Amino acid sequence: MTSELRIQLDKLYATFDHSFIYSDPIQLVKRFDDSQDQEIVALVVTSLAFGQVQQIIKAGELAIELMNHSPRRFVDTMEPEVEIKKWRGFYYRMIKHTDLLRLLYALKKILNQVGSIGNWVSSQYQQEDAHLGVTWAKCVDEIRKIDLENWKWKRSKGIGFNHLLPNPIKKSACKRANLLLRWMVRKDQIDLGLWDKLPASKLIIPVDTHIQRIAYNIGLTNRTDLSWKTAIEITDKLRQLDPNDPVKYDFALCRLGILNMCPKKRDMNKCNSCPIFDICRL
Ligand code: SF4
Q: Among 29, 57, 143, 265, which one is most buried in terms of CB atoms within 10 A?
């Protein structure tokens, strides 16, 4: 079964190559050439990566515009009392302009110390971290601590700032954190591989409704919830195919859902042309 699964998933991976980047928020990161800009855009965009893809891209584009299309320079020089008026029009679902500015201001303090987000995340990693979710949980704790110590401007009410920073320790699937790590740690034509001090072998698949459903269809999990346990179960199965790169197939699997190619009930008009039809048990 493992070899058949690998053959089918490799077919899917070859089908949904970099020419499909247009259908994914990672396109916003790829609009920049400088790695310092790329990692800031990646953090902002993955923090907003809930809801429909087109809405995420729109919110990310607005944030980039508000950062004057120069994210690293913006973060290095930003002063909240100046920016807060300019950013007032930013709102995405429960995320307010102040939530995003608090994140960027904490980032400014971190970048002053260590130079890049990649250096900072790598400094939190320890060999004994079972997966990079553990590493990211330490990063989230540090951002919260820096925010408490440094953000002197009026704190926004509501759950926006907390929602920006999912913590794997809290048992949710933490899709957005795992997505950021996938983009930055893995390297192929889609993922950037900028944080190369971190092991791709310890990535966890970013589970959303598309991934959970398709993973269930092809027997990578029997779970039906969007939990951390589901993410671990799917990743463990995929690790059997490639221990060094367990989340290799995430982008391709997700295309079936994002591009509305995978129906909730079997529909031969769509399923006939599905690259993983032979292993689907729907
Ligand atoms: S065969 Fe159909 S239901 Fe199964 S994964 Fe493909 S598109 Fe989805």
A: 29
